[in-house]
Write the structure tokens for this entry.
Amino acid sequence: MNYNIVYTVDAIRDYIGRADTIAFDFETAPDDAWRDEAKAALDAHKAHIVGISRSAAEGSAIYVPFAHRVGGNAVDLDGVMEYLCKAVLENPGMVKVAHNLAFEAMFLYALGIVVCPPCYDTIAAAQLTLKSKFEFRNLSDSGLKLMATSLFGADMPDFSTVTAGRHFDEMDPADHGTLRYACADSDYTLRLYHKFNAWFAKNLPRHRTIVDQIESPTAVYCGMMKYNGVPMNAAAMRERQKDAQEKLVKLRAEIDAMTGGVDIGANASTSAFKKYLFGDLGLPVLKTTEKRQEAADDETMLLLTEYCREKRPELIRLFELVQEYRKWSKLKSTYIDGYLSHINAATGRIHPDLMPLGTETGRFASRNPNLQNCPRKDNDPVGVRSFIVAPTGKTLLSLDFSQIELRVGAFY
């Protein structure tokens, strides 16, 4: 492999030459205030770019160190960034390729830089190509190191092995292991770019268009959206957290009074509760799990309610309490405790991961947390949607399409 470290604008210019396609990758490290936080290096509000690798030809790459605490860094950082912006990132004649482009776009946006088209996200391309004769890759199949091994037989260096518990800015950029790790990412990203495009040309040319014109530009905006995040009313959430806890205590007391203190756990589905229902009370098993065990889910509670209307009406209240308990437990654990745990200490906002290809239907998905799964207003006594607030001087606008997939399908 022809991997080299460079420190000057001239050296970068010499390497890029007349290339019209560049793969790039960032190495990042936490800022001083967040050095002890496990995943701070992945958060553009808590971390900074340590160095950038570039690959203009397969088998070669350069690494430009920006902020290493050990060893040397680029001369004239401002000049280097200005050149990279003009020659690559903002150049309409240069294809910018990255694996998980949203990540790079997020860190660049933190610096006030927006990646301009044309751009190409190889993680999107991966999910639009077949991993076998009849199966497309999903997100978990699309890791760079995984595909470098499966498609090229390459043994890429592992981050934890290279860093040995250190942050990347504590590594000497001139060290062989450090340089190889940084450069391999951009090198194999470029290889994937060529590999996938050859596959598209042979099998599904339209998918290349989708990657070029839709998914990759969208990835840039996903990175920007993640950086901006969602303002949350944490004070209101903590207030409702107390209310929800009090409600759960009251419901639990009523259930205990009816069951004699049987352990129902956090979701009223413990083996002790099932034994109480189907053993002590002698109720029929109306539904079983995949493992042929007695079920005690919400559908079971409804079935038992119907069964008991005539035969055991005194038990109907128990099933109502259990369902109410589960509802409040879900609201508190997922939408109050869960959302509070994801509020970024540096911004006071939630910054979810946004995945344009996160579902089989082609819809957007979000995670960490899933903000697309808010409960309906008619089933939400907590008011989860009100936790999301507009920034000062702004207004939230909520839009929804009725049966949009069917309408689009009918149009075409």
